């Protein structure tokens, strides 16, 4: 008995076989499959809330015909907001890494602590805080007035509930940059310390260091993390509700508005839009991950 | 670069970082205590504690705090319990394609929550489960569990399985190995995992609203409604109440987090 156990102990630790994946995998699988499955079924008219099922692509046709004139504007707006947020977040993260990675920078632990703290703050709270700071009579405008840059709130640029989604971009850029910075820091910390020392010995400073040492090391991992940020912002909902204008709407907001419309016949369209969004973003992230594996 | 130049970069870095992490919270804190705070006053003219007292006495807020705590603590606990076997399998089980399977766990986090939440809303309505706390907790697992699995897997790649072999050689069964060897050694990583799962669950909006059918009202749900209303003081107090618990959860484990490099490590 004891020898049997000993033999097993030498082969595989307990609770580590492939079946140990089952509980987590099954629960996630069921949640995703039923959630998406019902969305697909309703978008195809198979499970109407009332009346007989009428299976077909009607909802997709209505959606793409875009009678309200909202869809393509929303799609373009969503792509702009998502791409801009991701790029600004990545640039901010790179700057933070370049700064924190310098041999001379002190208090790195405190800095990463602050980054973690930012990650912990719920999006709704962050959006509300930005609203207080960035409205035309907000804290930023008051600070500008205090130093004599402007006289009345209307002199302050419209940064929230604006037509370009600037408030939304600022929200996701500032909320996702810490995440990307932490990813980059973890990667760069896993590199041998000598790399930085050699660069320093050879006289690399500032931008050269960023371009020749930091970027090649953290770039690939940062790209994958940026793809995840892109996917997250693409489907995000809270910040656009608090900081966005009523038009143009992000696709996620448009989808939920259709879902909540008093006209229940629009539900299949809402589901169709959700399904199209899911397919698009999964394909995009999949392609990004795949192209990285190829290299 | 000259020495003053370098110091300038450092000062700028700290200023931006502090501004990003702390300033919005200070603004919320001030707003929560301000009754009359209009342009161009940098500091409120009148202060009040009514909003904070209102939080403690207000029925809606109190039940939202309770709801948030119950949902997020349960979701965190469930995530950890489900993540432990999965992470052991991915990190210690010498699976083929372990990396690919690990990436598969990221899939639920990529799918727009709108799509999932609308679908789940329909399923739960048909199953007569919409609007229950259990439904919301299950829905939160879509967001928390992938994260818990990846963070714990990353932590366990540094776990030395030789201790477990030692125990096995000495005759310990699976239960004793897990309880007496694994649990004490992995406890710090498990706590980090739980704290992260808690914060992720705590901030969920759509995956609360739709599966909850508008009947499970957590703090973010309440705050999103209040942020639009005419009472910024009350909304700010609510925002503080929403921000503090996850901040505490992260501060409790921040040292470990830093050593682990979480949430970054799974993405390497």
Give me the count of strands of chain A. 0
Structural class of chain A, by secondary structure, is mainly alpha
Which geometry of chain A do the CA atoms define?
Answer: globular
Helix content of chain A: over 70%
Oligomer: heterodimer
Query: Main beta sheet of chain A: strand number and arrangement?
Result: none
Work out the helix count of chain B. 13
| Beta-strand percent range of chain A | under 5%
Nearest-integer average pLDDT of chain A: 86
Portion in strands of chain B: under 5%
Helix content of chain B: over 70%
Q: Main interface pair?
A: A-B, 112 and 104 residues
- Low-confidence segments of chain A, ≥5 residues, pLDDT <50? none
The arrangement of helices and strands of chain B along the chain is HHEEHHHHHHHHHHH
**Biggest pleated sheet of chain B:** 2 strands, antiparallel
Distance between the termini of chain B: 32 Å
| Shape label of chain B | globular
Description:
- Chain A has helices spanning 2-11, 22-43, 58-65, 71-100, 108-120, 123-134, 139-146, 166-190, 194-201, 206-234, 238-243, 251-259, 267-294.
- By secondary structure, chain A is mainly alpha-helical.
- The longest helix of chain A is centred in the N-terminal third of the chain and has 30 residues, at 71-100.
- The termini of chain A are far apart.
- The model of chain A has no long low-confidence stretch (mean pLDDT 86).
- Helices cover 74% and strands 2% of the residues of chain B.
- In chain B, helix 8 packs across helix 10.
- The two termini of chain B are 32 Å apart.
């Amino acid at each position: 008995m004891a020898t049997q156990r000993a033999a097993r102990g030498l082969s595989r630790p307990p609770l580590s076989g492939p079946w140990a994946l089952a509980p987590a995998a099954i629960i996630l699988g069921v949640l995703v499959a039923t959630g998406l499955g019902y969305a697909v079924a309703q978008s195809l008219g198979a499970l109407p809330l009332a009346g007989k099922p009428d299976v077909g692509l009607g909802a997709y046709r209505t959606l793409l015909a875009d009678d309200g004139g909202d869809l393509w504007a929303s799609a373009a707006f969503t792509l702009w907001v998502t791409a801009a947020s991701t790029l600004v977040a990545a640039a901010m993260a790179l700057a933070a890494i370049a700064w924190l990675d310098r041999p001379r920078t002190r208090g790195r632990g405190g800095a990463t602590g602050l980054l973690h703290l930012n990650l912990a703050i719920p999006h709704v709270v962050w959006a509300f805080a930005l609203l207080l700071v960035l409205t035309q009579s907000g804290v930023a405008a008051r600070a500008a007035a205090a130093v004599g840059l402007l006289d009345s709130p209307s002199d302050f640029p419209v940064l929230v509930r604006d037509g370009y989604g600037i408030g939304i971009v600022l929200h996701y850029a500032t909320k996702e940059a810490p995440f990307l910075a932490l990813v980059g820091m973890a990667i760069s910390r896993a590199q041998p310390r000598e790399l930085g020392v050699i660069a320093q010995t050879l006289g690399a400073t500032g931008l050269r260091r960023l371009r020749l040492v930091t970027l090649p090391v953290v770039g690939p991992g940062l790209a994958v993390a940026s793809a995840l940020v892109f996917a997250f912002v693409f489907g995000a909902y809270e910040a656009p509700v608090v900081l966005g204008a009523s038009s143009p709407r992000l696709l996620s907001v448009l989808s939920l508005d259709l879902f909540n419309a008093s006209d229940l016949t629009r539900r299949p369209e809402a589901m169709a839009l959700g399904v199209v969004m899911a397919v698009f973003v999964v394909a995009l992230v999949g392609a990004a991950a795949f192209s990285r594996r190829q290299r | 670069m000259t020495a003053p130049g370098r110091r300038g970069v450092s000062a700028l870095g700290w200023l931006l970082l502090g501004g990003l992490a702390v300033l919005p919270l200070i603004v919320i804190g001030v707003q929560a205590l301000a009754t009359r705070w209009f342009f161009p006053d940098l500091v409120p003219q009148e202060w009040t504690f009514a909003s904070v007292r209102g939080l403690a006495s207000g029925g809606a807020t109190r039940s939202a705090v309770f709801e948030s705590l119950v949902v997020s603590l349960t979701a965190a606990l469930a995530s950890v319990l489900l993540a432990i076997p999965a992470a052991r399998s991915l990190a210690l089980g010498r699976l083929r394609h372990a990396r690919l399977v690990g990436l598969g766990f990221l899939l639920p986090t990529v799918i727009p929550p709108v799509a999932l939440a609308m679908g789940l809303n329909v399923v739960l309505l048909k199953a007569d489960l919409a609007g229950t706390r259990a439904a919301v907790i299950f829905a939160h697992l879509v967001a928390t569990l992938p994260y818990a699995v990846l963070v714990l897997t990353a932590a366990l790649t540094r776990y030395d399985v030789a201790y477990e072999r030692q125990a096995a050689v000495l005759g310990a069964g699976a239960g004793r190995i897990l309880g007496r060897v694994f649990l004490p050694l992995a406890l710090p990583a498990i706590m980090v995992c739980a704290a992260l799962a808690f914060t992720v669950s705590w901030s969920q909006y759509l995956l609360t609203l739709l599966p909850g059918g508008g009947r499970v009202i957590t703090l973010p749900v309440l705050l999103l409604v209040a942020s639009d209303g005419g009472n910024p003081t009350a909304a700010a107090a609510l925002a503080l109440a929403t921000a503090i618990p996850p901040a505490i959860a992260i501060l409790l484990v921040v040292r470990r987090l830093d050593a682990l490099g979480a949430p970054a490590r799974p993405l390497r």
